[in-house]
TrEMBL record:
Compartment(s): Cell inner membrane
Membrane-crossing residue ranges in chain numbering: 59-78, 85-102, 108-127, 148-170, 206-224, 256-279, 291-310, 317-335, 341-362, 374-396, 402-422
Pfam family, one: MFS_1
Matching PANTHER family: L-FUCOSE-PROTON SYMPORTER (PTHR43702:SF11)
Superkingdom of the source species: Bacteria
Major localization class: membrane
Keyword Transmembrane helix: yes
Membrane topology of this protein: Multi-pass membrane protein
Protein's name in the database: L-fucose:H+ symporter permease
Length: 429
């Protein structure tokens, strides 16, 4: 399977090994499913635990906080071993996090659920730290950005799968949870909440089997190292020296901020789309979750279109126009007081598509070879934006009493993303 594959001195390959690239790309929907299930859990926990919008957004804080804490250790493991080893560690930890939903669903405390979500995020941090960089490396250097965008195109497939699992296995038929809870006695409410929390376990049972199968395929498949030829010398660079180098790299820091705000706005919009649909209609949670399916379909289509446009135009210009449309669309979402605002949020998801991969490849392009693994980890650490921006969105919503007007928070984030790419518009790659 590795016949005629030659590794260049800079770690890139002369061509992409197709099977390995497909298997690597299959990791992207696996963390997409976990991330989209958070959007279901936020809505479920909001009613079951009677949470404020800020408190319900702590689901995302626990999830993406795990990314932030583990990305650097994951990068050091990659540096000492290989991308494949880090991926296998990530899959094992992901399985362990899913298993924690067994005790969480029985203990029925919000804190225990947050601990299970945090545990899953530890595994996903290993996966993203390794797979994003590896996808950009596993082929010719000239197509690194396109290759990562193609891998990222698999993400919404997993996200849709996660939403459907949540829709049919967590959400139930009948009136909305808020309406059901309001009509119950304290005894009925206690039993009802326990039953609802038992449902949260179901999607993770199915994920465990999928993860075991993928881990087995990685275990038995040969993968290229995709590391610089003079690896021994490069590993002599101290971690602290790399951090000093990155702190002095202004282009790198601007890219980190763009990634921080991009991931934050994406997760904020997705966290509150179901809630927006519930607030602007009389539907229940199961029906409202359909709009997240539409959002991820739009996300997939937006990525596909962007991949095509990037073969015709400079990627930075494509992102400038995506960002302009995104700001306009989120302004509509925030301020038009009818149900069409939900469809605007769905369209905004289509415009999120190419941002992560393009920023990621752009940021890695600003650093020297010997700092690549740690730089990639810092970019993954910027995912902490998804722990911060949704919480701010929820806090603004609680403060002004409108989940819809609070969409101004992701709007401002998209404006900076557009500004970032406008500043890079004349670069050749």
């Amino acid at each position: 399977m590795m016949k005629n594959i030659i590794q260049m001195p800079d770690g890139y390959l002369n061509r992409t090994p197709l099977f390995q690239f497909i298997l690597l790309s299959c990791l992207f929907p696996l963390w997409g499913a976990a991330a989209s299930l958070n959007d279901i859990l936020i809505t479920q926990f909001k009613s079951v635990f009677t949470l404020s919008d800020f408190a319900s957004a702590l689901v995302q804080s626990a999830f993406y906080g795990g990314y932030f804490l583990i990305a650097i250790p994951a990068s050091l493991i990659i540096k000492k071993t290989s991308y494949k080893i880090a991926i296998l560690i990530g899959l094992t930890l992901y399985i362990g996090g899913c298993l924690m939903f067994y005790p969480a669903s029985h203990m029925a405390t919000y804190t225990m659920f947050l601990a299970a979500i945090f545990s899953i995020a530890i595994g996903l941090s290993f996966l993203e730290t390794s797979a994003n960089t590896y996808s950009s490396m596993i082929g010719h250097k000239d197509y690194a950005t396109l290759r990562l965008n193609i891998s990222q195109t698999f993400y919404p497939i997993g996200a849709i799968f996660g939403i459907l699992l949540g829709k049919y296995l967590i959400f139930q038929e009948g009136a909305s949870l808020h309406e059901q809870v309001a009509a119950m006695t304290p005894e009925q409410l206690h039993d009802f909440k326990l039953a609802m929390l038992q449902h949260t376990l179901q999607p993770y049972k199915y994920l465990i089997f999928v993860l075991i199968a993928v881990a087995f395929l990685f275990l038995v498949t040969q993968f290229p190292k995709c590391k610089t030829v003079n690896e021994g010398k490069k590993q002599d660079v101290h971690f602290i020296d790399t951090l000093k180098y990155l702190l002095k790299n202004s282009a790198f820091k601007k890219g980190i901020l763009a990634q921080f705000l991009y991931v934050g706005m994406q997760v904020a919009v997705w966290s509150f789309t179901i809630r927006l649909a519930l607030n602007l209609s009389n539907m229940n949670e199961r029906d409202a979750s359909d709009f997240m399916v539409y959002s991820f379909i739009g996300f997939f289509i937006g990525k596909f279109i962007a991949n095509f446009l990037m073969t015709k135009f400079k990627p930075n210009w494509v992102l400038v126009w995506y960002s302009v449309l995104g700001v306009i669309t989120l302004a509509y979402t925030a301020f038009v007081p009818d149900f069409s605002a939900v469809y605007a949020a769905i369209f905004a998801s289509a415009l999120f598509g190419p941002c992560w991969a393009t920023i990621y490849a752009s940021v890695l392009g600003t650093v020297e070879q010997e700092h690549r693994e740690v730089a990639g980890a810092v970019v993954v650490m910027s995912i902490i934006g998804a722990a911060v921006v949704p919480a701010i969105h929820g806090l603004v919503s609680d403060s002004i009493g409108s989940i819809q007007h609070a969409f101004i928070v992701p709007l401002l984030c998209f404006a900076y993303v557009g500004y970032y790419f406008y500043g890079k518009r004349n670069e050749t790659k």
